[in-house]
């Protein structure tokens, strides 16, 4: 036996697998007793084995005699899972406990243990959303295999490893798209199409990174070793890693503008090409609301839905002000942004020993961990908006000091003035929403309340000091998900009777593929970056829709949307209501139906389905002219011959009611997509001053795809000192809870 000092033992990683059946004769055992063991052995003596050629033979010699005698036979091969050459001296095999005991007697054996189940740590959002590589909805949906996601954005970096096509099938036979990279070199079985509608003389390359980021979020393949400046290490992967991607470049990747004509052309081509899901992280600017008949995106999206294409679109980054949501047509899934449970923490330690956590990207090697003078540079009688302005910094000495500034300040100004580090505090409107970004000098971003506490400390002493203490990546924040300040809020301006946004998804500090190098990283062209916005939450939902499309190819876009909405989570990891930026429960105009839960959406029980023609009575009810409705839906429409409905009368999974003194009744129809022979009981959470009745209050199904109608009546029972309230309607049956949020505005 070799001396133990000569044994090479390294760290190891093993992937779970599906066992194959194998017979055992030397030690009698049942197939159910087999487990995967990691077996450590000594390196073979080269006098007996050639390490390069016969290492596998050495490992085989430890297996039970009946299956190790012939290293070629099928039984033997099925029991040996991995032969390691670098990570450890050893192997992984399916064995029984008795076989391991026999193995322990063999010369060269060191130890063995049953494999640990390792979790996939990604750009983190798949795990946060309950998606696991070897089980559950991800596996059941085949990772979105065969589904085509069309992304309208700023182009794509085609050679990024996130777009490799290992294990990808060829495009479906229905695919009619084009690849406009020179010679088709930028396309493969992952990127099956790429076109430039912004400048047809150029390839659809992403010269900055936004389109690359959104594409990889939706359907990027597994890439190990992803991180941002050394933080948040893990495996980057999109929501639907086996889905195909088609990029339609319609946006200027330098200034972020997207000409409406280019976007319309891109959507037109995507419909023709045969995509299954459209992902649009674009929209109108703040408060630039347009009626649906004058909104090119809304019209194109309706045409897509008529073809069975699901449309996921961003809600906008104009929050937290009300009426700021854009992309609010009911046939689109409008996606707001929420936080995840991961943060990159740097703490502020004050001279009085008080410590406050903030966030930072930590890209500096000279971050000041010792106590330095702390200053809040505001001149006498000046407003807070002049804090850290170039003029103020000229009049106040900040050299070698930690400088407390409002978030809107340009860090370059503080660096030029000689500041050693910055504490960037949110204003009251932004509250607790922290978005990290790279900076030219060490900094930490803190909430409004933390900033106010630091200001109070500065004012309490003649010599305030502070140090920045690096903690790094932290996972497990119990207040997640929370609604971020920038996520646009409802109500919808164009159609306030439709609750928008529909749902929220991860959109804060999201790590995904990027096209250009991020300093100080060098010697790489394609890396990862961290950005925030509803641009990031939208492709999460696009990828999840692709998973649902793969698992339920017969579901309509409205059915997929309903499944996402009625199963969304309304509580955070702590089991409390999802919070807004100021630690108050988020209302439906911020959170919509809730935070997406992909696994629950795969089995919703009931759905609220809508066929394209069902929107005609709704559009006529908006008092659009025949011509305006025809421009949206196509064909001949005469509203005078249509029984128009109120906005809240659409068969939508949520309710937005403007309630006066008269009762209002709305009808809904649910379709059973769960097991047959189920009965559901209604459950109402009604607010003070509002009566809600359901007729019938119990519904039953005897077969799958059966439809049942019910009505909801809202009555104002007394006046209250509020202009808004909220309620919830759920249909309950065993494991199913089909939830509909209700937003009520008093008129």
TrEMBL record:
This is Uncharacterized protein. It comes from Citrus sinensis (Sweet orange).
């Amino acid at each position: 036996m070799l001396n133990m000092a000569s044994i090479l033992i390294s760290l190891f990683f093993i992937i779970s697998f599906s066992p194959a059946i194998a017979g055992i004769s030397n030690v009698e055992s049942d197939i159910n007793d087999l487990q995967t063991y990691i077996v450590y052995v000594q390196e073979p003596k080269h006098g007996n084995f050639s390490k390069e050629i016969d290492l596998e033979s050495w490992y085989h010699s430890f297996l039970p005699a009946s299956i190790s005698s012939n290293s070629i036979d099928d039984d033997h091969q099925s029991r040996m899972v991995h032969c390691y050459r670098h990570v450890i001296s050893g192997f992984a095999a399916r064995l029984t406990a008795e076989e391991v005991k026999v193995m322990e007697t063999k010369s060269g054996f060191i130890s063995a243990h049953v494999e640990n189940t390792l979790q996939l740590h990604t750009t983190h959002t798949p795990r946060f959303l309950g998606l696991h590589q070897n089980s559950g909805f991800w596996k059941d949906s085949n990772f979105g295999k065969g589904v085509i996601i069309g992304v309208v954005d700023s182009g794509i970096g085609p050679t990024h490893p996130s777009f490799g096509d290992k294990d990808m099938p060829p495009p479906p036979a229905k695919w009619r798209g084009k690849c406009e990279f020179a010679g088709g070199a930028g396309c493969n079985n992952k990127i099956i199409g790429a076109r430039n509608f912004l400048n047809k003389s150029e390839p659809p390359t992403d010269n900055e990174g936004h389109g690359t980021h959104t594409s990889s979020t939706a359907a990027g393949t597994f890439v190990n070793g992803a991180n941002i400046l050394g933080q948040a290490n893990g495996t980057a992967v999109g929501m639907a890693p086996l889905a195909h991607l088609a990029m339609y470049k319609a946006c200027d990747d330098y200034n972020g503008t997207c000409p409406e004509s280019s976007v319309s052309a891109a959507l037109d081509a995507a419909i023709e090409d045969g995509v299954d899901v459209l992902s649009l992280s674009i929209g109108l600017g703040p408060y630039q609301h347009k009626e649906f008949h004058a909104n090119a995106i809304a019209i194109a999206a309706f045409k897509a839905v008529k073809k069975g294409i699901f449309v996921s679109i961003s809600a906008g980054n104009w929050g937290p002000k009300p009426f700021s949501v854009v992309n609010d047509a009911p046939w689109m899934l409008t996606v707001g942004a929420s936080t995840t449970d991961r943060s990159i923490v740097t703490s502020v330690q004050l001279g009085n020993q008080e410590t406050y956590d903030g966030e930072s990207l930590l890209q500096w090697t000279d971050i000041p961990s010792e106590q330095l003078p702390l200053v809040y540079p505001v001149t006498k009688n000046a407003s807070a908006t002049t804090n850290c302005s170039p003029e103020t910094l000229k009049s106040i000495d900040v050299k070698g000091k930690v400088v407390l500034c409002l978030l809107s300040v340009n860090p370059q100004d503080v660096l030029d003035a000689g500041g050693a580090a910055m504490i960037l505090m949110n204003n009251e409107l932004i509250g607790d929403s922290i978005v990290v970004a790279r900076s030219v000098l060490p900094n930490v971003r803190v909430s409004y309340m933390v900033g106010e506490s630091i200001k109070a400390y500065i004012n309490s002493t003649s010599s305030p000091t502070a140090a920045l203490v690096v903690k790094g990546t932290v996972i497990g924040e119990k207040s997640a998900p929370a609604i971020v300040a920038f996520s646009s809020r409802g109500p919808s301006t164009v159609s306030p009777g439709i609750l928008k946004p529909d749902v929220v998804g991860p959109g804060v500090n999201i790590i995904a593929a990027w096209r250009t190098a991020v300093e100080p990283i060098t010697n790489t062209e394609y890396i990862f970056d961290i950005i925030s916005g509803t641009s990031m939450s939208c492709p999460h939902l696009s990828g999840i829709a692709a998973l649902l499309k793969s698992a339920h190819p017969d579901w309509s876009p409205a059915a997929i949307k309903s499944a996402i909405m009625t199963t969304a989570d309304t509580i955070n990891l702590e089991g409390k209501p999802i919070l807004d930026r100021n630690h108050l429960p988020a209302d439906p105009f911020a959170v919509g139906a809730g935070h997406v839960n992909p696994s629950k959406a795969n089995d919703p029980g009931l759905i609220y389905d809508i066929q394209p023609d069902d929107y005609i009575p709704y559009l006529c009810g908006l008092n659009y002219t025949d011509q305006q409705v025809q421009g949206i839906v196509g064909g001949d429409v005469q509203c005078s011959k249509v029984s128009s409905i109120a906005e809240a009368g659409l068969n939508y999974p949520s309710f937005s009611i403007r309630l006066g003194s008269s009762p209002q009744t709305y009808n809904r129809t649910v379709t059973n997509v769960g097991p047959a022979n189920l009965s559901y009981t209604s459950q109402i959470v009604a607010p003070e001053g509002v009566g809600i009745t359901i007729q019938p209050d119990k519904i039953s199904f005897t077969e799958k795809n059966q439809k049942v109608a019910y009505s909801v009546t809202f009555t104002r029972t007394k006046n209250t000192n509020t202009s808004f309230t909220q309620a919830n309607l759920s249909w309950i049956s065993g494991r199913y809870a089909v939830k509909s949020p209700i937003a009520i505005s008093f008129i």
